[in-house]
Design a protein that fits this description.
This protein is 57% helix and 11% strand. With 323 residues, the chain is an alpha/beta fold. Keywords: Chromosome partition. Residues 8-97 form the ParB-like N-terminal domain.
């Protein structure tokens, strides 16, 4: 990508950081500093001339540069290239990907900036530049659609990427987060995670819990069914299956129940308001409105009862399996 340019020793004080450089401060510089002290700087850092200044901007080699500074070096060998902002970012991202100095989440953020923030090209363009497949780039970016807690676990290496990718089919953030916790605690493989996700897609495909910001009301649909046959896995015990179901489904059922209770409270408030304004309303409009509200109230109570029965059944199943 940048085979042209010149190699030259430059004073460290004459090198400044690029605003777009991909840094990785979480990795220790100790071993790298020892290696440079013993063997010298094998791979020069990459810089470009600053416009209208007798200084240089660091493009790639942040950790090597920091290690040399730590060693008290006054000068450093540099590969000087004349490139624009887009090319400079491509150099930086390519080196970091090839040397695997970034976490998967850091890669995802860098890829997304290239494509969406800067608008320098699409997935295929970036994939070609960094020598990776389009699928690799797309899946990395899709990691950013997972809950933040899962992204943190991925960045810290607690959950590997292939396992985390199995959660992509889950559109419900809360389910994905709870399943992620279960996968982490039980050290599930990607294959096992895929099986678990498949089960929940099949058994909870009608469950959708979301907060409608326009009216600040909780919208919900009840789960299609709760049965004892959730996981077809000969290697998993019934107790583990029950634990998984209780872990993921119970918070959702509670959240749905809360939404219903809030709706009931709102209906009661509205009924109280129209009764206060009864004198200013026609007799027919008052009773029609109140009757409609009461019918909605009855249906909500029926849904709440069904939810509580589902939750009770799930809790009893967990107790039985624990015996």
């Amino acid at each position: 990508m940048y085979n042209l340019g010149v190699f030259q020793t430059i004073a460290i004080d004459d090198i400044v950081y690029s605003t777009n450089i991909l840094r990785n401060p979480r990795q220790s510089l100790d071993q790298l500093a020892v290696s440079i002290m013993q063997r010298g700087l094998i791979h020069p850092v990459v810089v470009r001339p600053k416009n209208n200044e007798y200084r240089y901007e660091l493009i790639a080699g942040y950790r090597r540069f920091e290690a040399c500074k730590r060693l008290g070096m006054q000068k450093i060998i540099c590969h000087i290239v004349d490139v624009d902002d887009k090319e400079a970012y491509e150099i930086s991202i390519t080196e970091n990907v090839q040397q695997q100095t970034m976490s998967p989440i850091e890669e995802a953020i860098a890829f997304k900036r290239y494509i969406e923030t800067f608008g320098w090209g699409g997935v295929s363009d970036l994939a070609r530049k960094i020598g990776k497949s389009q699928e690799y780039v797309s899946k990395r970016i899709k990691l950013l659609s997972l809950p933040e807690s899962l992204q943190k676990d991925i960045a810290q290496g607690k959950i590997n990427v292939s396992t985390a990718e199995e959660l992509f089919p889950l559109s419900n953030t809360e389910i994905a987060e709870n399943l992620g916790d279960y996968i982490l605690e039980n050290n599930l493989s990607a294959k096992e995670a895929r099986r678990v996700v498949k089960v929940f897609k099949e058994n909870f495909k009608d469950l959708d819990v979301s907060l409608d910001k326009s009216n600040n009301e909780l919208e919900f649909l009840l789960p299609r069914q709760l049965t004892e046959e959730y996981i077809d896995d000969n290697n998993s015990s019934s107790a583990n299956q029950s634990e998984l179901l209780f872990r993921v489904a119970n918070p959702l059922l509670k959240r749905c129940a809360l939404g219903i209770r809030l709706s009931l409270r709102n209906i009661d408030d509205i009924i109280g308001d129209i009764e206060d304004d009864r004198a200013s309303s026609t007799l027919d409009s008052f009773w029609i409105t109140k009757e409609l509200l009461m019918q909605h109230r009855i249906r909500l109570h029926e849904q709440l009862d069904q939810l509580l029965r589902q939750a009770s059944k799930l809790k009893n199943l967990q107790k039985l399996q624990a015996l």
